[in-house]
Amino acid sequence: MVPNGGKYMINENLATTEHLNNGVEMPKLGLGVWKTSNANAKESVSAAIQQGYRLIDTAKQYGNETGVGEGIREGLEKTGLNRKDLFVTTKVFNGDQGYQSTLDSIDGILERLQLTYIDLLLVHWPVDGKYIDTWKAMEKLYHAGKVRAIGISNFDVERMQDLLDHADVTPVINQMEFNPLQQQKDVLAFCQHAGIQLEAWSPLGGGDALNNPTIQEIADAHGKSTAQVIIRWDLQRGIITIPKSAHIERIEQNADVFDFELTDAEVEAINNLDEAKPSLWYEDFAWHNEDGHGFKDNVDTWDDSPVNFDK
């Protein structure tokens, strides 16, 4: 199928999924839109859908849910797909955390995204003193059918265990910074033991990983870019991954990873690049304190943000 008058070729491999612990199927490779304006998010999401992407990841904090919603609508129109063909992830904003405020936030989320339900809703950050109540509200939204699955983001082992001690529903996902130089081995091991799928944000690891000589050597051997090798490494390790790009050509290139396979030795060579440098220093965040008060966070704002974030 060639949508939009032949502008894009659909990559059917992007429909491949991982089975989550609640039975929902989630695409293995998707598009992230952090640090993307509404206009760019609309263009990127629409193009990605037309190329075959089925997983779209955003958040209220990114300030572009409105653009993502417009991109979803345009992408569906151009491809003839239905809403059920997509898997849309967003996240509970730090400033909305708490039981009632999380429940109240869902209408604004759905309005901005122009959707009637969310496929995956995540706790964006474990705000101390609030994330348990936030989770209880998300469980209610899940049972009410407002969301198909609920999960967490940026939870270390201590906070995951605390959440599981209080949860009635086990998270399906923990979305963490995960790349060749930051492999979160303790978090990954805990998730695997608990039946929680790990999902990678910042999977390409920036310039240090993309310019790593070991990864470059592997890329040269396969005639691929270092970014493609890293994405392939994620997939072969069973990690769901959402590389971010606002460039249409790069979105297409990031998906061109299903025609080659890394050897066991190549996977192990990348595994050995882990520097285990903690990057999520919770005490550095203003919202991190014992009583849960005084946390601060801001929604990214853009010149093209036509949205009321009071909702």
UniProtKB/TrEMBL annotation:
It comes from Weissella minor. The record marks 91 as: Lowers pKa of active site Tyr. GO terms for molecular function: oxidoreductase activity, acting on the CH-OH group of donors, NAD or NADP as acceptor. InterPro entries: AKR (IPR020471), Aldo/ket_reductase_CS (IPR018170), NAD(P)_OxRdtase_dom_sf (IPR036812), NADP_OxRdtase_dom (IPR023210). Residues 29-274 form the NADP-dependent oxidoreductase domain. Belongs to the aldo/keto reductase family. It comes from the Bacteria. Keywords: NADP, Oxidoreductase. Substrate binds at residue 124. The keyword Lipoprotein does not apply. This is Oxidoreductase. PROSITE patterns: ALDOKETO_REDUCTASE_1 (PS00798), ALDOKETO_REDUCTASE_2 (PS00062), ALDOKETO_REDUCTASE_3 (PS00063). The active site is at residue 62.
